[in-house]
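Sample entry (526 residues):
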Amino acid sequence: MLLMKRTSIITIFLFLFIAGVITGGLFAQQPDAGSEEPGFGLQAQMFRNLSKATSELPKHLSSIQEYQFTPGDVYTLTFNPGLGSDGRPLSNVTYPVELQPDFTLDIPILGKIDVSGMTLQELKTFVSSQLKQKMILQYVDFRLTAPAQFQVFIYGGVLSPGYILANPLIRVIDSIALAGGLKPGATYRQITILRNGSPIILDVSRFYSNADFSVNPPLQPGDQIFVPQADVICDISGMIYYPGAYELVEGETLKDLLNFAGNFRPGAESDSIEIVRMNDQGQRRLIEVSIGEADSFIMMMGDAVRIASASENREMITFEGAFYGKPTSGTQPIAAPRQPLRFEVPWYPGISLLSVLDQLGGPTPYAKQSENYLLLKKTGEKISVDIKTLWEKRDLNLDIELEPGDFFLLPITTLKVNVIGEVSTPGSYDHMNGLTVADYIMLAGGFNPDTANPNGIYQLSKGGDRTKISLIDEVTPEATILVTKNALRSADRTMNDVFITLGWITTIAVTITTIITAYNALSGLW
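Predicted structure, serialized as tokens:
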């Protein structure tokens, strides 16, 4: 019983040890999902492997199934007849044989053999069977012992371009390692072999990702290898399984990049993918792409993709004032907002004042450009910027890199509404969105109760033309509201004035007549 218990305990520990070795070996190969170590991501693990690849030959050359016969190969024939005439064991007999340019081998006892169309295993089987038919042998072995050597020229994006000494067991990836590895920015997805005058384009990343041996073929005499620059190299970070730098070929999309990087980790903000892109002037701007647009969004050299967390509290920069609110192309007209706008712009490393202005369309014609200021979060300092020169001439010497929490104010010109005519206090009043004609008449003290005509309200154009408006109409900036006189009230007042005037005239006439009559009477007495 005690022995059985000890045996069980030993078995359990042995199982745990083996399980630990197996799982440790497996997980040792998995990238850390939380790691954002700089460098290439999963797709380009092979990039690092290129610098570490070796050209050591396999130990058992005779087991290579797809070896290509190459003139200059050295093969070794070994056999043993067994016992001699005196009954003693005989030593092995060994013959080296070299493959000739016509692809023939001159094998002792058998003569010349044409290896064209054979595999290495077929050749070994053929030689062994033919010798055994001709001799009584205890042992026969035929194997490749020294592959042919030749020179291959490799150039372009490798650290040590020039000739390398190769053999048919060396593949394309090994040749790059022998040339010192790839230079920064060199492609590993469009490596070109010039073979027999024809180019062969190889995406050697598929050798590692899909075990595709066709993209990593053995070298042949006369090969030339050219390593061009990569079309597109992008970086992806954040809530993605395999962050890092990835090479894309021309035309590949954000969806391809996400697939290379293992796609989103749980908790990723997948509906808004942030891409920082640099323009021709060296300025970076932020582009937000939805997952639905990912399969059509073409990636460009230098793009940096960031996958945010859905629960992440992003650091922001605030812009307020006279901005369009969206990029302007310059080819299509866009209305300039009449009220100041406020924007919270996500911060990313390298974001600058000009890059945000590009996002917001720049200053509008209503901007008070000389009154702007940038309030720096870190120091509390206020900086005035020559915004006109920065925007119109794109003078990068005036550009400023921004930090989280910075605030930029570009004041807007206050717009007015003029109210004239039959109101108590004619004048100019600040424009406010949503106010109606009635609101502005109230601001002007209301209608003149004696002369105003509430049904005679007009908006005047700059040319003086009248357009009738109602009290409930909303008023646009720079409008002029005219309240006209009440014609009937004016007519009544005019008639009253006439009657009053006639009354005075009659009174004066009667008075004059009375005075004359009195004068004449007095004159008669005299």
